[in-house]
Amino acid sequence: MIxxxxxxxxxxxxxxxxRTFMKEISMVDLKSxxxxxxxxxxxxxxxxxxxxxxxxxxxxxxxxxxxAEYLGVRNVxxxxxxxxxxxxxxxxxxxxxxxxVITTNFTFIATVEVIALLGLKPVFVDPDPNTFNISPEEVxxxxxxxxxxxxxxxxxGQCADMEKLTPLAKKYHLYIIEDAxxxxxxxxxxxxxxxxKAGTIGNIGTTSFFPSxxxxxxxxxxxxxxxxxxxxxxxxxxxxxxxxxxxxxxYIGVNSRLDTIQAAILRVKLKYLDSYNDARRAVADAxxxxxxxxxxxxxxxxxxxxxxxxxxxTLKTEPxxxxxxxxxxxxxxxxxMIYYPVPLHKQKAYQYLGCADDKFPVTEELSKRVLSLPMHxxxxxxxxxxxxxxxxEFFEEI
Length: 398
Prior knowledge:
alpha/beta; Aspartate Aminotransferase, domain 1; Aspartate Aminotransferase, domain 2; 2 domains; seven-stranded mixed beta sheet; three-stranded antiparallel beta sheet
């Protein structure tokens, strides 16, 4: 842009002008989201405080029922966080030490740490290089007579290939526990035309309500989903010290309850979940359009049979460019994140599994190539313009 001040001509980059007047860019803008629904949130919190029913108050049951209706599942059971949800799911299925659980090597640590904590054996497999989700072909190769569970993670907001995983589990008499923490609201369409939401397809689905999630509370929270009424009854007992009635403990349980204030907040935010997911898709569309002809990066792959709700917008670059791009963005006040820089089989805590370094080429490649851009529901147009201009600027200069 050309500015003329007192007959002196200044050539000023458009990005610099945009940056001067725009709001600071965040990976997740929870403050602006809160400001939009502040009155509803404040009323919900105030109502719980006035009731003093902080544990197992009425909003917990109301939220569970409302989320069950939204998901189209018979039972939703709230718990303390998404990690607990995974552990409780495995406890509910009665898994025994030494049982094997197959899951992706490209995920957050919570997915596998609960497997190890219960004395089960995590079995890692590579993801699909395009979708980043667990590869059904790799899952079948890893099945042994000790395998009891397939644990797909619906990563970054898109469902794993449940069309292939569901019959695979049936063929080998295995359970499916879905980690849907990043995909609440995503839908999977089967070849027969039936549609199910993430977390409602396997035996048990789990999710997290961590604040940055598409459906997030203002602290920790999680939930389990199942159509099995008996299993749901057992899970409700496990989350509350294994009690069937007060002071009668039929199961070894844990203390992991969704507190009432978080449930009240989630009831408000659930009403907006679809619009939040639509807003994220709109941001992804804007990114995709801006990067359509950018050489050196691959935009997120979208499956035909799954909607994508873009918990993250994750690019793939060449390995030699990824860290330099991250630094370039940082210098220009644009945050970005690497999910996940160290494969699980290389984490110090899991060296006891003895996984060979050359066994997971896709995970190794992704850990060197992926970079996630800011993604949330509260973007202003000039922020997206600035981010995309700076990404494209980097690749024009190399």
